[in-house]
Write a structure and sequence with these properties.
Elements (H helix, E strand, L loop, with lengths): L5 H15 L4 E6 L6 H9 L5 E5 L10 H7 L11 H10 L10 H15 L5 E6 L6 H12 L6 E7 L12 E4 L5 H9 L7 H10 L4 H6 L17 H14 L3 H13 L4 H10 L8 H5 L3 E3 L4 E3 L2 H10 L2 H14 L6 H11 L5 H16 L3 H13 L4 H18 L2 H18 L43 H4 L1 H18 L3 H15 L4 H16 L3 H13 L8 H11 L8 H10 L9 H9 L3 H18 L5 H14 L3 H17 L3 H18 L2 H11 L12 H14 L3 H9 L10 H5 L1 H10 L3 H18 L2 H14 L2 H11 L5 H17 L3 H18 L2 H13 L18 H11 L4 H8 L3 H15 L15
Parallel strand pairs: 1-4, 1-5, 2-3, 3-4
Antiparallel strand pairs: 6-7
Length: about 950
């Protein structure tokens, strides 16, 4: 029976009731030690829903996917039903397959699909205790799955310590646990068997703070001197002291086996007993601890009464005894499946440098890195460096730690590791023959990823195609220093030090352009990205260095370098699709090497080709499981879709990109896509959503006013103001587009027509003329007819009489939906002022129809107002077609279903479970007036 937890139990009951009805949910139970988190999980497990359990184990926190394997092990026979890429990813994560390492989020998708399979015949409850001790790889996969639960009948409950940094779980419902109410505390205390005087009872009720474990455990020791009346320690430490007092009364052999169990952390009893035997203890010595209620065992596993008891045993033991326990455990672990755990016990037993242990730990880090357990790899490489006898080996291991930290998005730690490595490297440059890339004795040198295996690097946000970063032994000392500079550049870019990051990238590219022009080209691809946030001088510098690279014509980097060189100035040098095809023919790593081409294609106005190429690369990412590249590609495709007049599809792609960027910590893309969604909301006239997204884009965590999404955010607020007729605010926001770096960026160029219109309407002819000059120059460089049409519209606004009309007609020669609608609106307004009502009506009615189709509400209202001034009734707004009735996710799923994809194929593509896909289709059918997916192909699903 739980005392005083009626509200919390009701929350759990609601989740379980939903699961029985086919709905899913996830919740994090958060509270201090002893507050009753595990008791609530036990309550959930007792409600009759089939359950699987796992728990974070402190000693296994650096073993990737350890906790995940424990959770999914009961359903492993269902793994064969997973889509092949998901199956291979999960098996590789658990070391059961020989496939290439998979993207860590693909593993999360495999977990989601597997849980849906387990719940196929009824609800499933997943209980994860001590989540603050989960290995990071397991935590990421489980959270990825938890955030996507919807209609599988799966409930996931996590229990963790109080602090949000103990187990960050953004997007999940939280259930904070506080102390019991006074009446519940009294009832729990009085249910115990220890007689208490009124004074002691009052003291316990006062000092326990309603902590159930304190109310259960402290009565036995509060009066025997184990806990001082004036003890100032926090409650958790007081409980540890109380537990330790109980431990000291046990026989010495019992304390020995408990210490081995505490050092082991894991529940498997066999290795504990083997290690204990080496220290003179055995199974029968556990009996006194079991009789005292401290542990439980069934002969196979050992469980602790409470984690604090395990901590009390370990922390209360002498250092020499703890070291001996770890050595004994290392000796007891001899199988191939325990080699990593053995390495960590050896490291825990080390009291100084030990090259054999360092080598074993380095190999553990290698394996973790190959399995995308990047956080574990960082820790293992770092600890291996600390145990290294040879300083060159220590440097090498620090470099690998720094690179792994960069891949994991731990940019602050990566920078600190790189600084340590650089400082140590300066002391060991001589003799040169002992290069830091020399392989560890007895094992292979950890090789850097093949091109493309290192993708968009965490919060750094640099689109990283992998780079040519082989072993330092092959490269020599100079290249080793370049590797450190690349790590620092990533960290600096993530920390908002764009200028410094750019200088490092440029220095690295210049240093290696003679010896490795392809590697230099890859680095310069990243430098193009940093340069966009700095200014035209930096872009020109990148273009100049790109032009000096002596690349073979057949080299895959050649067409990429040539295209980027032109695009940084907005100059069309080739069609995007031709450049991409040539790079692929030469052996480029697609999609990774081609991502930046999409961004650059927008600069030269090849929007339709960007949308096409980005769509191809997105499909390749999904097929290859390279989720890290999806956010930038979805952003680029969203831009292409919007500019091409498909705002609903654009929003769907952008929202998916935002979810992925948030999941894998790509802060730059979170900021950028929030700002882009603000722009889409402004187009629709959704003021609240526009302002919310714009504010989020420039949140302090993304760099505040200097965030990478700031330019799009200003453009969004400007478009909202322009659509609503607030011209002064629009001019204020658009003024930001005339200042570097926004001035030369994609959105800075795209807002030139807005700048012209606002300036003309406010009578600022000089400003309008300057913006028109820039737009005309861009049109000439990019050689795009649609840009020329916008320039013609600008000239029409600045002209009078027949000349203005000529320019309006020229502007309508090339039609892109939103641009055409705005041109017809402006032309219609001009015709109405010229008293040509019939001609004005024709233009305004066409503009209204286009705005309605695009869902551009404020612009549609403006056109209707103009028609009203002509005395023309406009009726109700036209429907946006069948898709306008659906949510963005329903729309995305319906489109794919109409193409003939199965629910499982759609689920794999959208990172959902197949049951969630079916749920959305079930909701969409009645909205569309169909009964089955077979009827979807007959619908007009275009915007």
């Amino acid at each position: 029976m739980l005392h005083g937890r009626d509200t919390e139990q009701a929350r759990i009951d609601d989740l379980l009731s939903g699961a029985r009805a086919g709905r899913s949910g996830a919740m994090v139970v958060r509270g201090e030690a002893g507050i009753g988190k595990t008791a609530l999980l036990d309550y959930a497990a007792a409600q009759g829903v089939p359950a699987v359990r796992s728990a974070g184990i402190e000693s296994e926190a650096e073993l990737p996917f350890a906790a995940l394997h424990l959770l999914v092990r009961p359903g492993m026979e269902l793994v064969r039903h997973l889509p092949s890429r998901q199956r291979d990813a999960l098996e590789a994560a658990f070391g059961l397959g020989e496939g290439a390492p998979a993207d860590r989020m693909l593993i999360g998708l495999a977990v989601l699909t597997l849980l849906a399979e387990e719940a196929a015949n009824g609800p499933l409850l997943c209980l994860i205790d001590d989540a603050h001790w989960l290995d990071r790889a397991s935590a990421e996969a489980l959270l990825f799955a938890a955030r996507r639960l919807e209609a599988e009948g799966v409930v996931m409950l996590f229990a963790t310590r109080s602090g949000p940094q103990d187990f960050p779980a953004p997007g999940l419902t939280e259930l904070p646990l506080s102390g019991l109410r006074p009446d519940a505390s009294a009832a729990l205390l009085d249910a115990g068997t220890t007689p208490l005087s009124p004074a002691v009872r009052y003291r316990l009720l006062t000092e326990s703070g309603g902590n159930p474990l304190a109310l259960l455990e402290l009565p036995a020791v509060v009066g025997d001197g184990s806990v001082d009346d004036a003890n100032p320690l926090p409650l958790s430490q007081r409980l540890q002291l109380a537990f330790h007092g109980r431990v000291t009364r046990l026989p010495a052999a019992t304390r020995t086996v408990l210490l081995v169990a505490a050092a082991a952390g894991a529940a498997d009893l066999a290795p504990i007993l083997r290690a204990a035997a080496g220290l003179g203890a055995s199974l029968r010595d556990l009996q006194p601890a079991q009789d005292a209620g401290m542990i439980g065992t069934d002969g196979q596993v050992l469980t602790w009464h409470h984690p604090l008891l395990r901590s009390a045993v370990y922390q209360g033991a002498a250092l020499t005894d703890r070291l001996a326990a770890h050595r004994a455990l290392a000796d007891a672990l001899s199988g191939d499946d325990t080699v990593d755990l053995r390495a960590w016990h050896l490291a825990s037993a080390a009291t100084g440098p030990d090259e054999n242990t360092a080598t074993a730990l380095e190999h553990t880090a290698d394996r973790a890195r190959r399995r995308h357990g990047l956080h574990a790899a960082v820790t293992a490489y770092d600890r291996a460096a600390a145990l290294s006898l040879d300083r060159s080996a220590r440097v090498r291991r620090l470099v690998f730690a720094a690179e792994s930290a960069t891949e994991a998005g731990l940019t602050d730690r990566a920078e600190r590791l790189a600084e340590r490595a650089a400082s140590l490297w300066s002391d060991v440059r001589e003799p040169a023959g002992d290069a830091p890339g020399t392989p560890a004795t007895g094992g292979p040198t950890p090789q850097a990823a093949r091109p493309g295996e290192r993708e968009a690097v965490g919060s750094a946000g640099v689109v990283d195609g992998g780079g040519e970063q082989g072993s330092a032994a092959e490269e020599g000392g100079a290249a080793f220093e370049l590797r450190l500079d690349l790590v620092r550049a990533q960290a600096e870019f993530a920390g908002g030090k764009t200028g410094s990051a750019h200088r490092r990238l440029m220095s690295a590219a210049v240093a290696m352009r003679e010896s490795d022009p392809r590697g230099a080209a890859r680095i310069l691809t990243k430098a193009v990205h940093t340069a966009w946030y700095l200014g035209p001088d930096e872009l020109d510098e990148v273009a100049d260095v790109l032009a000096t690279l002596r690349l073979m014509e057949a080299d895959p980097a050649t067409p990429i370098a040539r295209y980027l060189t032109g695009s940084v100035t907005g100059q069309r040098v080739a069609d995007l699709r031709d450049a991409a095809a040539a790079a692929r023919t030469g052996g480029a790593d697609s999609p990774a090497d081609l991502v930046q081409l999409c961004g650059s294609g927008l600069v030269v106005g090849q929007d339709d080709q960007v949308e096409e190429l980005a769509g191809e690369l997105i499909r390749e990412c999904r097929e290859q499981g390279r989720i890290g590249l999806l956010a930038p590609l979805l952003f680029f495709r969203s831009e292409g879709l919007l500019f091409g007049g498909r705002p609903r599809e654009s929003r769907i792609a952008a929202e998916e990109g935002l979810r992925i960027a948030q999941d894998i910590g790509q802060a730059q893309w979170v900021s950028q896509i929030h700002a882009f969604l603000a722009y889409l909301a402004a187009l629709q006239g959704d003021s609240a959503s526009c302002r919310d997204h714009a504010a989020r884009a420039v949140a302090e965590e993304f760099g505040g006013p200097g965030a990478v999404g700031a330019s799009w955010a200003h453009a969004a607020v400007a478009l909202l103001a322009l659509g609503e007729g607030r011209l002064e605010q629009a001019r204020t926001e658009l003024a930001q587009m005339t200042i570097e770096p926004a001035r030369h960026q994609v959105i800075g160029l795209r807002t030139l027509p807005d700048q012209i219109e606002v300036a003309v309407r406010l009578g600022a002819t000089d400003q309008a003329t300057e913006a028109l000059d820039r737009l005309s120059a861009w049109s000439q460089r990019a050689e795009q007819e649609w840009i020329a049409a916008l320039a013609a519209r600008g000239r029409a606004l600045l002209a009078d009489g027949p000349e203005a009309e000529e320019h309006f007609v020229a502007a309508l020669a090339v039609n892109r939906p939103f641009d055409e609608a705005r041109t017809r609106l402006l032309y219609g307004e001009w015709l109405r002022r010229d008293k040509r009502k019939v001609d004005a009506r024709a233009q305004l009615e066409q503009a209204t129809a286009l705005f309605d189709r695009l869902g551009a509400a404020p612009w549609s209202e403006r056109a209707r107002t103009e028609l009203g001034a002509l005395g023309v009734g406009t009726g109700t707004r036209a429907s946006g077609g069948p898709l306008s009735l659906l949510t963005p996710q329903e729309s995305q799923i319906v489109r794919l279903a109409a193409q003939g994809l199965s629910n499982r194929e759609i689920a794999a593509r959208l990172f959902l479970s197949h049951r969630t896909v079916g749920h959305h289709l079930y909701k969409a059918y009645p909205k569309l007036g169909v009964l089955s997916r077979g009827e979807l192909s007959a619908l007009d699903l275009t915007e």
